[in-house]
Amino acid sequence: MDNFWNIIWLFFWSFAFIAYLFALFAIVGDLFRDHKLSGWWKAVWIIFLIFVPFLTALVYLIARGNGMAERSARDAKQAQAATEAYIRQTAGSASPSDEIAKAKALLDSGTITQQEYDVIKAKALSQA
Fold it and tell me: Residues 27, 58: contact at Cβ < 8 Å?
């Protein structure tokens, strides 16, 4: 039974260590993401994180936790907006009238038939 509890303790301390590493990386990332904090204060936080890691991480999360959440939410919104802009640019935002005009040009050049033109036109009008 003693071996079983050793395994439980191993899992517990492994989880605690990995959770600490996640918190540490989040703090360091937040420090460099915060443009309002001067370089000297960033250096002080990093020094304290090196020499008194657990206490400094706890103090940082308590003192600057709200700011971390705000910066993270702001960055997520910016990333979402950039993604949406890229998708709109890549996919193109052709209006139904643009689609019909392109189909008409294809019809006039003889690339498509009247029936194909009618299908494209109906499809473009139904998406509007």
Answer: no
